[in-house]
């Protein structure tokens, strides 16, 4: 099998070499230019219009790069975004479009051609690639604000729907949110009701509040006829009473839960112990009843045997399991605590019989 594979490989290699050798003269012959006729350029009868010379070949036409934005003017509201559609063809590989906004206060554009409306107005968005350039007009509509809200930090203690509590020395920041999102207002103003207990420094939508003395004040924010206000109670520094009460409530709840769990565990343990005692009592009662039953059976059997012995007048041995025993002692015969009859006392060495017991 190996020899056959080797022979086939040799044949294939020989065929490839032979093919290459046979093609070489043909290619060499084709590369030789055909000489012009002897009368080339000397006789008017020869037509040289069909001859081609180096450099006379027709060059391939290269298409012109194209860059254009397919959409017309774009209408957006403040806060919206939009991907600008465009066509970019026949550019050299690796050519990237460059986007630009003429007014970033109105709209901004990303490197991917996504325009984001920032404020009301009109702006021209352009894109450039190589020497080509295209542009589109973007109009941003103004959103009218319909509500202003003071945003309070979650760490501030809330004592009512619009009232909060701070301690002397606390410093916190408040923020004004405009709704709907993206709406613009001309100016935001913060007003402090009682400047004797706190101070306020404002910077546009934010205001820094400093609690300086015990008391109460109102903080108000205004913009384009919209207002919102909150009440701030300033107490002594330290742990507020409400916080202490919360801790006490939670502590009492935890203690109650622990006590209930302990009581439940103790009750379950006592119940288990009581159940074990009940089981032991039932077992002891059963053993006692079984012993009494056996004693009754043995007594009944003994009575039957005694009746039979009475009829035959044969001595009857005492029951094996009972307490009655016959002992031979000097002077007296005792059987289960019964004194022998007077007529039987003469023979002190004689063992007791059933007749003596009667």
Topology:
Blueprint: H1 2-31, E1 66-69, E2 74-77, E3 81-83, E4 86-89, E5 98-101, E6 107-109, E7 114-117, E8 121-129, E9 132-141, E10 147-151, E11 157-158, E12 163-167, E13 171-179, E14 189-192, E15 198-203, E16 206-211, E17 215-223, E18 226-235, H2 241-312, E19 326-328, E20 333-335, H3 354-357
Parallel strand pairs: 2-9, 12-18
Antiparallel strand pairs: 1-4, 3-7, 5-8, 6-7, 8-9, 10-13, 11-12, 13-16, 14-17, 15-16, 17-18, 19-20
What does this structure look like?
It is a single chain. The chain has helices at 2-31, 241-312, 354-357, and strands at residues 66-69, 74-77, 81-83, 86-89, 98-101, 107-109, 114-117, 121-129, 132-141, 147-151, 157-158, 163-167, 171-179, 189-192, 198-203, 206-211, 215-223, 226-235, 326-328, 333-335. The protein has 358 residues and is an alpha+beta fold. A hairpin with a 4-residue loop joins strand 6 (107-109) and strand 7. The longest helix has 72 residues, at 241-312. The radius of gyration is 60 Å and the shape is flat. It starts with a helix and ends with a helix. It has 4 domains: 66-141, Immunoglobulin-like (Sandwich), CATH 2.60.40; 147-238, Immunoglobulin-like, CATH 2.60.40.1080; 239-316; 323-357, no CATH class. The strands form 6 sheets. The chain has a 5-stranded mixed beta sheet, with no helix packed on it.
């Amino acid at each position: 099998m190996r020899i056959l594979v080797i022979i086939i490989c040799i044949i294939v290699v020989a065929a490839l070499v032979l093919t290459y050798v046979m093609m070489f003269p043909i290619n060499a012959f084709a590369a030789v230019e055909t000489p012009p006729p002897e009368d080339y350029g000397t006789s008017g009868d020869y037509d040289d219009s069909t001859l081609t010379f180096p450099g006379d070949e027709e060059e391939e036409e290269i298409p012109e790069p194209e860059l254009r934005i397919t959409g017309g003017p774009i209408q957006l509201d403040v806060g919206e975004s939009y991907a600008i559609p465009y066509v970019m063809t026949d550019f050299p590989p690796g050519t990237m479009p460059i986007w630009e906004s003429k007014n970033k206060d109105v709209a901004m554009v990303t490197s991917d051609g996504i325009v984001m409306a920032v404020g009301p107005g009109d702006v021209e968005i352009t894109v450039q690639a190589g020497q080509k350039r295209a542009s589109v007009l973007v109009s941003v509509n103004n959103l009218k604000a319909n509500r202003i809200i003071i945003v309070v930090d979650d760490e501030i203690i809330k004592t009512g729907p619009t009232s909060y509590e701070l301690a002397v020395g606390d410093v916190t920041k408040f923020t004004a949110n405009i709704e709907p999102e993206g709406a613009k207002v001309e100016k935001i103003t913060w007003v402090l009701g009682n400047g004797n207990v706190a101070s306020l420094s404002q910077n546009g939508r934010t205001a820094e509040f400093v609690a300086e003395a015990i008391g109460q004040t109102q903080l108000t924010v205004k913009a384009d006829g919209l207002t919102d206000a909150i009440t701030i109670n300033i107490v002594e520094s330290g742990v507020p009473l409400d916080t202490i009460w919360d801790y006490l409530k939670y502590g009492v709840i935890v203690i109650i839960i622990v006590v209930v769990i302990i009581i439940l565990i103790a009750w379950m343990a006592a119940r288990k112990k009581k159940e074990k005692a009940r089981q032991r009592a039932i077992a002891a009662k059963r053993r006692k009843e079984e012993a009494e039953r056996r004693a009754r059976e043995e007594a009944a059997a003994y009575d039957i045997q005694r009746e039979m012995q009475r009829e035959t007048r044969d001595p009857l041995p005492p029951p094996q399991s009972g307490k009655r025993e016959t002992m031979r002692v000097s002077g007296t015969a005792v059987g289960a605590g019964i004194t022998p009859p007077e007529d039987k006392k003469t023979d002190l060495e004689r063992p007791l019989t059933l007749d003596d017991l009667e």
